[in-house]
Amino acid sequence: MFRLVIADKNFSSWSLRPWLVLKMLAEPFEEIPLRLYQPDTHARILKFSPSGKVPALLDHQLCIWDSLAICEYLAECFPAAGLWPREATDRATARAITAEMHSGFSALRQNLPLNVVAQYSGLSFDEATQADIQRISQIWQSLRHDHQDGGPFLFGGFTIADAMYAPVALRFASYGVSLPPLAQAYADHMLALPAMQQWVAEARAEQDGKDS
Fold it and tell me: Which fold has domain 84-195?
């Protein structure tokens, strides 16, 4: 059985990505949750991950310590699951927007950090953050326009690209970001997934436990 080392569900967007892929695969796995911002957090993570970061996927003696690398490994383990689109052109686009999410949108990350339980309204964002929001909205809007006949995800069926953008749907909901219709419908669909609902519920329980 896979073991997945993750951080707080309320805060760890990177942990959500491979966790969601495993859930969508309906593949059993053991969660190893580690709390962030504790005096021994780094030392505890190093017991599992040589980079000192999470998530990390443990498969027998193999350790994979990057979200995208984990997702790629799962795509190879389960080729029939279609974690990348079947068509070569769609697959190239999916990889491009996944890489863009993996390495970009720094203003969004800094100014809209993942906080699942938070709810804000009436916020204003600086120019760089607005540009990131607009770019993501454009990606969602365009891909849903092109693939809406194939299913409700970015490329019709669920892919790694959806997992990479799943935390953004949570961010947009928390920070009250307005989206055009197709992009909003996509975000609403992602948030309604049973796996995403489970993540949100467990993030809330986690925070309630801290406050008690």
Answer: Glutathione S-transferase Yfyf (Class Pi); Chain A, domain 2 (1.20.1050)
CA 134, 195, 136: angle at the middle one, nearest 5?
10
Indicate the pairing of strand 2-6 with strand 62-64: unpaired
Nearest to 144 by CA among 98, 187, 81, 100: 187
CB-based contacts of 35: which residues, under 8 Å, 6+ apart?
Answer: 7, 8, 41
List the structure tokens of 208: 């309630």
pLDDT tens-digit series, residues 82-133: 999 999 999 999 999 999 999 999 999 999 999 999 999 889 999 999 999 9
Residue 31 host element (H or E): strand 29-33
Looking at residue 211, its pLDDT comes to 47
Judge: domain 2-80, CATH 3.40.30.10.
Answer: yes
Amino acid at 63: C
Strands 56-59 and 62-64: antiparallel
- Per DSSP, the residues of 138-185 read HHHHHHHHHHGGG-SBTBBB--HHHHHHHHHHHHHHHTT----HHHHH
- The Cβ-side half-sphere exposure at 83, using a 13 Å CA radius, reads 25
